[in-house]
UniProtKB/TrEMBL annotation:
UniProt xrefs under SUPFAM superfamilies: Homeodomain-like, Tetracyclin repressor-like, C-terminal domain
DNA-binding region: 41-60
Protein name: Transcriptional regulator, TetR family
GO molecular function, one term: DNA binding
Length: 212
């Protein structure tokens, strides 16, 4: 339907809402998740976002710039709220257990086995930039810092078994998360993932195996 010509200029129709950066990144993230940085073509990204290559490059500089913005968007939207949610729990050991159980569940229930953008990018041998790799490392370090902080609280409460050092154990817990997210893409067996979580948590209870 076309407006009457007499009103075309005196009362113009509002312009369609332009896509925000958040909208664009939410459309680009599944492409990077499913295909990785190297496998995500410019055509894939323009079709997903609805923008031309020139428009995407105008906003982000290049494909690497878009990828790096997607990493931050993903971490801020998916990881940070999760860490804040479990960090608010009074029981630091329960906070760690709850986070690992949540990740085990969502990993097993991932219907397309797309995994986690941060973990996928960390494990990807593809040619992502040094800047993007450092960015992924920094965002995963936030997860490690969560574990270290919770472990230090448990130690201060006298609840950490002898021989457990928070920095070293936080590294092992981060490795558990990497294993969870990676194994689930190969074989999303809930029992297998739960056993991995149970083994990690056994070290944090009195009588556990302690550090290897």
């Amino acid at each position: 339907m076309v407006d009457d010509d007499s009103n075309q200029y005196s009362c113009p129709m509002p312009r369609p809402r332009s896509l925000t950066n958040e909208d664009l990144l939410d459309r680009a993230i599944p492409i990077f998740l499913g295909k990785g940085y190297a496998g995500a073509s410019l055509r894939d990204l323009t079709e997903a976002t609805g923008l031309s290559a020139a428009a995407l490059y105008h906003r982000y500089g290049d494909k690497n710039g878009l990828f790096r913005a997607a990493i931050d968007r993903y971490a801020d939207d998916m990881m940070v709220p999760l860490l804040e949610r479990f960090a608010a729990e009074d029981d630091p050991i329960a906070a760690i257990a709850g986070l690992l159980a949540h990740l085990s569940h969502v990993s097993a229930q991932d219907p397309h086995r797309m995994g986690c953008l941060l973990v996928n990018s960390a494990m990807d041998g593809g040619p992502i930039s040094a800047e993007a790799r450092a960015q992924v490392h920094a965002r995963l370090s936030q997860l490690e810092a969560f574990f270290r902080d919770r472990l230090e609280h448990a130690r201060d409460q006298g609840r950490l078994p002898a021989g457990i050092e928070p920095p070293a154990q936080a590294e092992l817990l981060l490795a558990t998360v990497l294993a969870l997210r990676t194994l689930a893409r190969l074989d999303p067996d809930p029992g297998r993932l739960d056993r991995l979580v149970a083994d990690a948590m056994s070290r944090l209870h009195p009588g556990g195996s302690g550090t290897p």
